[in-house]
Amino acid sequence: MKYIFIICFLPVIFSSPYYHEIEINSDDDCWSSENNNKTIDKNYATLVKFSPKIAYGKDSCSVFITNPWLKNIQNGFGLFLSREMDCASTLTIDCLPNNNLINQVTPAPKQFTCHTSKNKIEMLCNTIRLTYKRNLNSEERKRTTQVQVVALAKEPCDDSDIFFQCQMDYPNSCIDTKLQCNGRSECPSGYDERNCHNAPSDGISITAIILITLALIMLFCILSTVLICCCCRAAFNGIVRRFRSKKGNNTIQKGDITISGEDAGLMKGLTAPATVVEILPQQQYTGPPALIINSTKPIYPRLE
After folding, report:
1. What is the pLDDT of residue 97?
2. What residue spans define the domains of the chain?
3. What percent of the chain lies above the pLDDT cut of 70?
4. Which fold has domain 15-194?
5. Exposure string for 169-185, b = 16+ CB within 10 A, e = fewer
6. Which of 2, 177, 183, 257 is deepest in the core (most CB within 10 A)?
């Protein structure tokens, strides 16, 4: 039952607006400006992965992302590469037409290359286009290009239940507070993942709960094993006692044999009670004197 639950809810977990990934593995996954129904418009952070196998049959491959914050607090996007890209690839970021922020002009397109992999980019518009290209003539080692896109909101970021600020990266913007300590850096410096496991908690941590649960399971297994061993030993001892008792009864029955005839008389004589001999007191002897025989002289028989 639990596996059915996991299978049913995995798509919900990974489609969460606070943790989203898009993998572009073939040219068929690439989007076009006419196909706006594929625009990412409900995610506060998206990791886009461009495979090095794409953009060979086409000139480019594009992805569109829309800022999900309310229009009056939208402040564009922050982008950075989560890993260094190869020099045969380029990634261009620009704003779609008529998608400027309030009181903002359309910013110029910006580009990631192998020489600017460590840079971060801010685009002040509510919908951006990521365009990936590859140089077919380059022999550079192929790598998957991974770009982290996060939707920005205008400061102040005082409400900690809604906003979190990447102070070192986007000092004039906020990101969604649920992106903090989610196991993936949405701030280029990793500021949102710092001190996530050292902060004191009001209750028992998940790690402690897991350890306690494992200890209880282990204790239950040990007690169950001991109980089973005791029951088996008691049963074995009962079987041994019954076997010995049965063997003793067989021995007694074998010893109960009827004896008749001469053997019975002999057995009766052997088992007759012992005769008591009464020793009379010594009396004075008055008969003839005792014959004394000298053992050193031979005695010859008397012939008549």
Report:
1. 86
2. 15-194
3. 67
4. Jelly Rolls (2.60.120)
5. bbeebbbbbbbbebeeb
6. 177
Contact 53, 26 (CB under 8 A): yes
- Are 124 and 83 a contacting pair, CB within 8 Å? no
* C-alpha span between 297 and 279 (Å, rounded): 36
Q: What is the pTM of this model?
A: 0.58
How many Å apart are CA 228 and CA 222, to the nearest integer? 10
CA distances to 46, 118, 174, 187, 189 from 180, rounded to whole Å, are: 14, 21, 11, 9, 13
Helix (H) / strand (E) element for 21: namely: strand 20-24
Residue range 162-177: mean pLDDT, rounded = 93
**Of all residues in the chain, what percent carry a pLDDT higher than 90?**
36
pLDDT reading at 243 higher than 90: no
